Amino acid sequence: MEAAGAELQPALPKVAGDPAQNSRLVSTAQFYTDAATGTLPQVSWGVPGLVVSPYARQGYIDHNTYSFEAWLKIVEERFGVKSLTARDANAKDMLADFDFTQQPRQPIILSATRAGSQYPQPLQTLLH
Hints:
- By secondary structure, this protein is mainly alpha-helical.
- The chain folds into 2 domains: 44 residues, no CATH class; 59 residues, no CATH class.
- The chain is flat.
């Protein structure tokens, strides 16, 4: 893991000012290595977010700013789970990013290399 340098400097003051949090930052190259070896953490993120789901709205760009609790909020709303704290209870949800009425799309296998896969991928046919 690379040390947090200028290219890894987080915009969140609580992370930037906390060595324990800051030590968890990794470079894009490390992300690809972790993806290739199957050692990604169970949850990771980076400001902007990327929604990867068979129910994600294809081609949709959400210009809202969300807190970290928004990810928990969408799980709570989707599965009818009671909020754990007031923070996630009051968070904005991300429902606009998903279409749960559509048939789930087949996965697109992306190349876990620094060069990445051909992008953009062709749009998939959606069936409702």
